[in-house]
């Protein structure tokens, strides 16, 4: 299959035009058509010579994300279920905030990490997405916002899949997102979330970017975390926290720890006390997340009063903490829920 045009960085496009005996500025023109004008075909690139457009058509594909369905929440959240060229399905979500629009992107078809409270892992991992397939989610979402003269101002890499298990494609995606001649999204407006793939936390720290790092922790000790997140058996809490401290020391940046509260599992006062002790002294922030109901998992939400009690204990122990504002709850906007339903209906 021909490579996706979005898979090429500006530098790679410059090499390609040079190989085709074209001046380097043609790469900048192509890049502008892709990310500023956001066209859907090479034929629309009107300032590119016809012969070069024919060559682009011969050498590259555009990523085709066919919209299977789209839901819009009363709070403005828009959730897309896209079909890829190989007929696999992925999800992308636009979230509207007071400070702008953010997009949550998917990095894999499915997930092999196996968190027991997450719909994304149902059916396991099918494959990694290419950088171009991740980029296409942002471009297509931005095209949707172009209709109302709005802009994507921030990105969260928290959709289906484990980004740090698709590390190289994720980093290539990020390089395109922050490029000043492209979508030009500020690094500090991008967050990547990992379940704790320790070797790549060190690798990401050494990249010395300004991109935010979030860690899905969800439990204050190994026994409980391993029961909720099998990845903890590969990378236990001690090793994860050591990597997090290296990241903080190397970058000087704060880490966000995501903690999904599951009724009767990890939401007791003693869990809050233990979590505060584990994170004591770290430059970090805890984001408490009321767990989404996934019928196949059977977990229940923590009652509101218990969520506030958990938060109060962390605050008392000087841990910076917030409760995530829910968005798109009426359209099942949590990652994996829509895809799981699509997979189920497709096999009937």
Automatic annotation (TrEMBL):
Enzyme Commission number(s) from the entry: 2.1.1.192
Needed cofactors: [4Fe-4S] cluster
Binding-site list for [4Fe-4S] cluster: 111, 115, 118
Gene Ontology biological process terms from the UniProt entry: rRNA base methylation; tRNA methylation
Domain Radical SAM core: 97-330
Binding site for S-adenosyl-L-methionine: 161-162, 193, 216-218, 292
Alphabetized UniProt keyword annotations: 4Fe-4S, Cytoplasm, Disulfide bond, Iron, Iron-sulfur, Metal-binding, Methyltransferase, rRNA processing, S-adenosyl-L-methionine, Transferase, tRNA processing
Pfam families in the record: Radical_SAM (PF04055), RlmN_N (PF21016)
Superkingdom to which the source organism belongs: Bacteria
Gene3D superfamilies: 1.10.150.530, Aldolase class I (3.20.20.70)
Top EC class of this enzyme: transferase
Catalyzed reactions per annotation: adenosine(2503) in 23S rRNA + 2 reduced [2Fe-2S]-[ferredoxin] + 2 S-adenosyl-L-methionine = 2-methyladenosine(2503) in 23S rRNA + 5'-deoxyadenosine + L-methionine + 2 oxidized [2Fe-2S]-[ferredoxin] + S-adenosyl-L-homocysteine; adenosine(37) in tRNA + 2 reduced [2Fe-2S]-[ferredoxin] + 2 S-adenosyl-L-methionine = 2-methyladenosine(37) in tRNA + 5'-deoxyadenosine + L-methionine + 2 oxidized [2Fe-2S]-[ferredoxin] + S-adenosyl-L-homocysteine
Entry's cofactor comment: Binds 1 [4Fe-4S] cluster. The cluster is coordinated with 3 cysteines and an exchangeable S-adenosyl-L-methionine.
Active site: 91 (proton acceptor), 335 (s-methylcysteine intermediate)
Entry's Gene Ontology cellular component terms: cytoplasm
Subcellular location: Cytoplasm
Any further remark recorded for this protein: Reaction proceeds by a ping-pong mechanism involving intermediate methylation of a conserved cysteine residue.
Family: Belongs to the radical SAM superfamily. RlmN family.
Function statement: Specifically methylates position 2 of adenine 2503 in 23S rRNA and position 2 of adenine 37 in tRNAs.
Stated name of the protein: Probable dual-specificity RNA methyltransferase RlmN
Gene: rlmN
